[in-house]
Amino acid sequence: MLLAIISVVGLMSCASSSKFQRPKVISDQPLDYPLSAQLDRIEGDVLLAVYVEEDGTPQHVKIVESSGNAELDSAAYRFAHDLSFKPALLDENQIASWTKLLLRYRLSELPFERDTWLQDVKHYQKQIAAAEDSTRRQRFQKKLIARYVGLLTYCEKFGNPSINRVIKRVISSEIKEVWNPFWNVVPAPFAVFDDFLYKYPETPYSEDVKQKLLTALVRAEGRIRVKSFNSDRMNREHLDLLRVLEERQNALQNEQYEKIRSLYEK
User: Fold this and answer.
1) CATH code of the domain covering residue 96
2) Which terminus of the chain has fewer CB atoms gathered within 10 Å of its CB, N or C?
3) What is the 3-state secondary structure (H, E, C) of the chain?
4) What is the mean pLDDT of the chain?
5) Domain check: are 82 and 127 in the same one?
6) Of 82, 109, 136, which residue constitutes the final position of a domain?
7) What is the CA radius of gyration of the chain?
8) Last residue of a domain, which of 58, 91, 109?
9) Domains in the chain: how many in total?
10) Which residues constitute the domain of residue 241?
11) Nearest alpha-carbon partner for 101 in 84, 89, 121, 117
């Protein structure tokens, strides 16, 4: 299971007066870790210089040391602009001053535990349903996707279809019916990604989820083919399952093609 571990570290200003106190971050907002960077397992540190006004507003932000990834750098730049600061003090007077921030983007692998995963997923689904604004809803959607990626990673290591008993407890009846033939054959993490797209069609993370869904479908296809190779012949059931997987993959790829074509036709 992927979990973002992020720290915000303030570094000393270059002012030399012993009566000088550097600006301090007073915002409690979590660091925005771009979802696509999490899914691609991209980590890095971004060192920023921030010019803080007398009222604690960040006026200018400069990247001093890049993470080496443009997406993380852009996220860090935007994040610093949204922070609130306690302004610098010189002889007890508030002044404008530069300071530095080190933003750490880190991922850690946590052991996959079925009951905990199930509890987390149900919690995030409830929070998404109860969210009254898009910002809060999207924040919990990101957390939910991260849990689904954790499931996918687990299923890649362990091919026991028994995990499907847990999966069926968090997806809609419609999606459960679609993938019914697979429950006793292969682990089906693709079902949770398909369910996400079904439940949240307006999510800004649809393209990221589609990519993970395609990955999960390809892995499932590989497992079924291995089962077939290990038997005397590919039976009718396996052929039917492979056909369903191929149709879903084609549908997803056609959706992407239609989206690209529509951009050129505008």
Assistant:
1) 3.30.2420.10
2) C
3) CEEEEEEEEEECCCCCCCCEECCEECCCCCCCCCHHHHHCCCCEEEEEEEEECCCCCEEEEEEEECCCCHHHHHHHHHHHHCCCEECEEECCEEECEEEEEEEEEEEEECCCCHHHHHHHHHHHHHHHHHCCCHHHHHHHHHHHHHHHHHHHHHHHHCCCHHHHHHHCCCCCHHHHHHCHHHCCCCCCCHHHHHHHHHHCCCCCCHHHHHHHHHHHHHHHHHHHHHHHHCCCCCCHHHHHHHHHHHHHHHHHHHHHHHHHHHHHHC
4) 85
5) no
6) 109
7) 24
8) 109
9) 2
10) 114-265
11) 84
Query: Parallel, antiparallel, or unpaired for β 93-95 and 85-86?
Result: unpaired
Same structural domain for residues 78 and 120? no
> Taking 80 as the threshold, does the pLDDT of residue 255 lie above it?
no
d(CA 241, CA 25): 54
- List, for residues 7-43, the tens digit of each pLDDT value: 445 444 444 545 888 888 888 877 888 888 887 888 9
> CB-hemisphere CA count at 13 Å for 127?
16
| Per-residue pLDDT tens over the stretch 51-104 | 999 999 999 999 999 999 999 999 999 999 999 999 989 888 899 999 999 998
Q: How far apart are CA 209 and CA 197, in angstroms?
A: 7
**Two structure tokens written together for 29:** 């907002």
What is the band of 3 on the pLDDT scale with cuts at 50, 70, 90?
A: very low
| pTM, entire model | 0.72
